[in-house]
Amino acid sequence: MAYIPKQCDVLVIGGGPAGSSIATYLAQDGIDVVVLEKSEFPRNQVGESLIPHFWKFSDLLGVSKKIGQQGFLSKSGGITVWNGQIHQIKFSEYGYNRPGLHIERDIFDQLLLDHSISNGATVFNQVVVKKVDFSDSIWPKVLYTDKRGDSVEEGELRCQYVIDASGHSTFLANQMGTRLAVSSEMNFLSIWGYFVNSRYVGADRKSHHMEELKQNPPVTFVMSYEDGWIWHIVLREKTSVGLIVHTERTKGMNKEQRKIFFKQTCAKVPYLSTLLEPACLVEGSLQYRPDYSYYSSQICGENYYCIGDAAAFVDPIFSHGLQNAFYNAAVTALAVKESLKNNKKRARYSQLCESRMQQFYGFSRALSLGDFGCNGVNRTLVKSLMKSRPRLELELILVTAQMTNRSENFIQLAKEAGIWDDFSASAESGWSGNVSELEF
Ligand SMILES: Cc1cc2nc3c(=O)[nH]c(=O)nc-3n(C[C@H](O)[C@H](O)[C@H](O)COP(=O)(O)OP(=O)(O)OC[C@H]3O[C@@H](n4cnc5c(N)ncnc54)[C@H](O)[C@@H]3O)c2cc1C
């Protein structure tokens, strides 16, 4: 069994996309980085829709070729049926020459973690971080439980920087008491599961059998319904289906009652029920996430950074989760590299990162929460990000914002930032039509 060192430059908690990405960037620069991951990889994870913005990060990481070779399903865009209206967007119409993907997260996350190892990061699975002791601000101490092998052992390691990439466990935010729930008029939770043999929606707005996946590429299919909204994401051998439900709707339900609720909803919602008619729910695949939207009042300090879902999470309607993870990893890697070169500047870099990352999360919250409220959003920061974002990305985001009724706050911010007029014509583009246009 490999020996866990007593010291390293940077310790990363968690080997998901945020943790593996920052480990790769740092290792590429010759920095001694150790990742402690509590699960045995590959491990299951939800979040299978990737929008094409991610390619710029995979290029930076040097992992695009490996992702291409994996043969994940390409998608050309998305179709929503929202309050009786259909909208469709195609990424290619906004200048993207590479597709979005539907990814099996166990395979995708393992690929990224292996990539960090091949770049020089040291990774240990089944090692759980229990506490970070910051009493020595130059060399914080990380206490962990090593669950590899037959006996469970406690250990400790010193490092100069701690990166919390522990996902929704929000390890440091919990330790420091900085985690806040996004309070809004409507709180949501998620219940999701996997089906075999579902039909899927193609870019031609028709439903298809799984065997046609090669000839008729899929889209991500999203629907609103009386209790919230639903995703249908076809993968190579199964289909991910998730309900985002108002918290009140499932209050007091036990596990079995939630399963019945999930099955009944899938069987009654128009379009979804047709797609799932020939399908079977994979036994034991149902999962539930109650602590849904949250953020952290402070995500960076002089010797720590929280990235990815460890910093914040908001309703995944626009597939922003992985984008946030990749973006945070890239900016934090830069801050840590520079701080290691010049210790006197570390406070400045952490402040810069704090404001950049809060800005990015605020952007996602304003986009996703619509008139359901978006507390914790710094409007000035979001407006300045809108002005500086590449035109191509902003245009696609503004079009997407028209596909649901979730983005009133965001559109208002775009107006206040003085950019709405530039984009409003294209933002109202995309294809819209009556639901009768769907051929199921
Ligand atoms: C219902 C739902 C649907 C979603 N859909 C999408 C989508 O379609 N597209 C999209 O882009 N995003 C989606 N997301 C968000 C996406 O899944 C996350 O944003 C993404 O996984 C974040 O990556 P991460 O590396 O920050 O965290 P994770 O992927 O959660 O990885 C964190 C890792 O840390 C490890 N860990 C935790 N605690 C410790 C500890 N104490 N010690 C050691 N290791 C620890 C965990 O085992 C885990 O492997 C969705 C999320 C939800 C809840």
Could you please describe the fold and organization of this structure?
With 440 residues, this protein is α+β, with helices and mostly antiparallel strands. The model has no long low-confidence stretch (mean pLDDT 90). It starts with 6 loop residues before the first strand and ends in a 6-residue tail after the last strand. The chain has two domains: 7-74 and 102-181 and 293-353, FAD/NAD(P)-binding domain (3-Layer(bba) Sandwich); 188-289, D-Amino Acid Oxidase, Chain A, domain 2. The protein has 13 helices and 24 strands. Strands 5, 6, 13, 16, 17, 18, 19, 20 and 24 form a nine-stranded mixed β-sheet that branches. Strands 1, 2, 8, 9, 10, 11 and 22 form a seven-stranded mixed β-sheet that branches. A three-stranded antiparallel β-sheet has the order 3-7-4, with no helix packed on it. β14 and β15 form a beta hairpin. It binds flavin-adenine dinucleotide (FAD).
List keywords for this structure.
single chain; 440 residues; alpha+beta; FAD/NAD(P)-binding domain; nine-stranded mixed sheet; globular; binds flavin-adenine dinucleotide
